Amino acid sequence: MNSNLNMILMGLLYKIIPADKIMKIQTSFLQFILRKQHKLQKCIHYLEISVVDHCNLNCKYCANFSPLAQKTYLDIIDYEKDCRKLSEISMNNVETIRLLGGEPLLHDKLEEIIFITRKYFSQSRIELVTNGLLLLKMNDDFWRSCSDNTIIVSISHYPIKINYKAIQKTASRFKVTVSYSKFAQPMFKWVLDIDGKQNSNESYLKCHRSNICVTLRNGKIYPCSMIPYVRYFNRYFNKELLENEQDSFDLYQTNCFDEILLFLSKAVPFCKYCNPNNIIYSNKWEISKREITEWT
User: Fold this and answer.
1) Which domain, by its residues, includes 13?
2) Which residues, including other chains, have CB under 8 Å from residue 132's CB and lie 6 or more apart?
3) Domain total for the chain?
């Protein structure tokens, strides 16, 4: 089960079951998922690529800190180099790749990114994750690129005005698959411990993002997306949640995929800043006010 489905199911449980009765269900459900998730894997099941870090929507509780991010665009040359390296050492053994952000449709070279991703990961499921606001403004080249490279356009369903029928019509014309939930997805508050007093191993084992929301950024593999993007939190709120060399794996320091998989199966020092015990699984969608309490 991927992390998106995991989170959506937990959010729905919170909507239909009283909070005082859900803890036992939550604990047993997550324990079942995490027992499988944190074992040494045979592949990377789920890889995230941030096409841009900033966003045109700015959701409250964004786990990638997009409301705090500066305009940052994926570098095409570096990205192709990283894809080539990961593809070579993994032997194309990445199940799902999600191109996201921020809002990926803000990148003016998105078609090139799509082409590069498919070029090096011919067998992977590739999803383009978007809030959908710009889809009807995208030109035919974008839709042809999605069609030619078998890209699934995955719309995050928020309670905002989106013309899904018109999007489906355009996608159908180009034979592109569009997916979205019929229900608005719940928002999850990922809680940071800014003092770093959590037990790293315990946090890792209780977290349903670790070893499943694997992130590729600037030649490094991270066990979750919060680590490479926490710099935006630090800059905006003048904090020092420190990332060190042990929090990521340098792709260019190995030719052995098993070393990467082993790295992903263990806690990293940054896990001390995460408090999975206090995650809130179901929150009303709102625009971020850029307050520190959205992440603490």
Assistant:
1) 3-294
2) 155, 156, 162, 164, 167, 180
3) 1
